[in-house]
Amino acid sequence: MDFIEEINKRVLVYDGSKGYLLQKMGLKGGECPELWNVDRKDEVKKIYTSYRDAGADVIQTNTFQGNRYQLDKYGLGNRTYELNYEGTKLAKEVMGTRGFVAASIGPVGRLFEPSGDLTFNEAYSIYKEQVMAVADGGADIINFETFTDLADMRVALIAAKETCDLPVICSMAYEENGRTMMGSDPYLVTEVLKSLGADMVGVNCSFGPEHMIGIVTEMSRAGGIFFSVKPNAGLPEIVNGEVTYRANPDNFANLSQKFITFGARLIGGCCGTTPEFIKAIKEKIGDTEVYKAVSQDRIIITSLTKVIEVEKTENLRIGHLNVNKDAELLYALKKGSMDEIIDAVMDLIGSDYDAVYLNVDSAGGGKDLLGRVLDIAQGYVKDPFILETTSPEALEYALRLYRGKAGVVINDSNKNYQEELMEVAGLYGSTILNITV
Fold this sequence. Notes:
Elements: H1 3-7, E1 12-13, H2 19-24, H3 36-39, H4 41-54, E2 58-60, H5 68-72, H6 80-95, E3 100-105, H7 120-136, E4 141-147, H8 150-161, E5 168-172, H9 186-196, E6 200-204, H10 213-220, E7 227-230, E8 237-239, E9 242-244, H11 249-256, E10 264-267, H12 275-285, E11 300-302, E12 307-309, E13 318-322, H13 327-335, H14 339-348, E14 355-359, H15 369-378, E15 385-388, H16 392-401, E16 407-409, H17 418-427, E17 431-433
Parallel strand pairs: 1-10, 2-3, 3-4, 4-5, 5-6, 6-7, 7-10, 13-14, 14-15, 15-16, 16-17
Antiparallel strand pairs: 8-9, 11-12
Helix pairs in contact: 4-6, 4-12, 6-7, 7-8, 8-9, 9-10, 11-12, 13-14, 15-16, 16-17
């Protein structure tokens, strides 16, 4: 079976929580769940088997916290490959040819600069290492889940696409206000990840199914891509010192059926759900035939938190960070100083712009300079960026670091490099703009 072919034909059923069942089996606080993939294989296989037998078409691996940064907290960083490989291998042994194995990969667990200390390169290396291990272990799908920062998810998706050829699901968690922790709304998230090459975009954790309808409705505005949905079994409660979820499997399944109308093709459960929930979902919606995803032809650019439609570019209100035409900024960059750039960026904050134009071509300083300036600027400015350069290498470096869907100017000013620039822009899901700024 081919996963992409299957979700174009029918609704598939995901599995439910691993952590909840591991705790029921004796996993203690402060104990590494992924270590059970080696030390307590039989218990992990029992969980996999219980979900398979409940009717799950896709089971996830016990590798959610399996990245090196998280495993280092347990003194297990040097076993990153082993724990991920073994957890995936066990799932593959259980599932065989009856369905698919999705490798569960969670976020690194740190904030990106300037809010934190995580860099693109470090995050990329961390995700690449884990993706390589689960791919070698036999995963059919890479499933990034419970991410709260779109910038983090972009890095993970890029790492996966450059490490293996498996389908990738990108699933975010949202706050009560309908946005991620970093302020991205579901429509923006879906557009950015779709354009970057995700095979499926999802929502998981956060709430029970009744509270996810609004999020999935917003996701569906993007069009052209299917969704995975994994609600919690309601909100957790502490009863007699134990975490308890009060959702009823049948009600959960009835509510989950509503997601199909909006484009959900992979439906399961997250925290607190058990094989009983998955069995109820399978009985309610398993093998439902569906229609194809319909694309929406909106032309947009985005930042991490803001979407701008650009069908009529002449109406765009554009702020400028054009080093080529600013002698003081050009001089500062040639000296290697970024202080003046930060000052110029601060001047843009609070202005009523739709987007900010950035051009650093004449500054010298290497192919990474456009990206370095962009990375600083996007940490402060919330508007989408429009980039212009004559260097495909500089554009690629910048687009890897960008946290949304950038605009890229391609016109007569860079006509000698248009083919290469268009290829790079397309690779990173950017919107090509034939404008003069």
